[in-house]
Design goal:
This is Flagellar FliJ protein. The protein has 135 residues and is mainly alpha-helical. The protein contains two helices and no strands.
Length: 135
């Protein structure tokens, strides 16, 4: 008789769900940073087009200050994004491991249940034949 894996499957499921829950805020932060970078890129493109048309702020040097600010902001956002991606990579290892354990236990349990069902079916058919009933 094989051991019942249901308690282990339940534990593996809980651990997997916990890992997924822990990575959720990291994914949200990554999304926020990527959106901020995209928004900044759009603003940079719009400003560059305005400055190329001879916008009056260009004469005051505001275009250079704007470009400098944008580059600093992009650099800061990219540094923050790199940190978030590093945290995400560490957590993804834990998620993959938890998923692997859960998946392996699910597969073993399903295989064991299928084998048990097959064994019971064969025993039932054998009992019918022995009793002289057609199968």
């Amino acid at each position: 008789m094989k051991p019942n894996l249901d308690p282990l499957r339940d534990i593996a499921e809980v651990r997997f769900q916990r890992e997924i829950a822990q990575i959720g805020p990291i994914l949200a932060e990554e999304s926020r940073l990527r959106e901020a970078l995209a928004r900044l890129e759009g603003q940079k493109t719009s400003a560059r087009e305005a400055f190329q048309k001879g916008h009056e702020s260009q004469y005051l040097g505001a275009d250079l200050m704007w470009e400098s600010w944008v580059l600093r902001a992009q650099k800061d956002l990219n540094i923050e994004l790199a940190r978030v991606l590093a945290r995400k990579a560490r957590h993804m290892d834990a998620v993959r491991q938890a998923f692997g354990r859960k998946h392996a236990l699910d597969e073993i349990s399903a295989r064991d249940k299928a084998e048990l069902k097959d064994k019971r079916t064969k025993a039932y058919l054998r009992a019918l034949r022995e009793a002289g009933m057609p199968s």
